[in-house]
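Input (structure):
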């Protein structure tokens, strides 16, 4: 079991209006979103679950992944729960969806937006590194 922090890069090809649990209706603009999470029960298990098509809708990200596609995965192996420090790093310069993925912490969000894939990927990799993590891009799970 490998623990760590991960980011799913999700492509939304057109405007989506979705009901997301307690957050209510959210309008997602076309573009790319980086979802930041921790997997202390195992990266393979958590990321693999996110990437499965059939699953119980449980987390905020599940609502989005029903209608959008994860196009990349970045992971950083390690014991700590680092998603909040990465989210705070990304919050400085990227728009986010308020409350998304952060109902169990004090972060404003764990979902960040950019219309440009390369810009978002660069920022996520830089955000991981700024937090002392060693990101691995293109990891295959599921």
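Output (sequence):
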């Amino acid at each position: 079991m490998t623990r760590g922090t991960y980011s799913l890069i999700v492509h939304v090809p057109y405007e989506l209006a979705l009901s997301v649990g307690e957050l209510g209706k959210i309008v997602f603009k076309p573009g790319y979103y980086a979802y930041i999470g921790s997997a202390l029960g195992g990266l393979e298990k958590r990321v693999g679950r996110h990437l499965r098509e059939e699953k119980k809708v449980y987390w905020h990200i599940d609502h989005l992944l029903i209608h959008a596609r994860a196009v990349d995965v970045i992971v950083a192996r390690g014991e700590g729960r680092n998603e909040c420090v990465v989210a705070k790093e990304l919050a400085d310069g990227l728009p986010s969806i308020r409350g998304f993925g952060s109902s169990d912490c004090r972060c404003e969000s764990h979902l960040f937006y950019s219309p440009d894939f390369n810009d978002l990927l660069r920022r996520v990799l830089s955000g991981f590194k700024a937090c002392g993590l060693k990101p691995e891009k293109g990891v295959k799970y599921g």
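Notes: The chain has a mean pLDDT of 93. The chain has one domain: 4-133.
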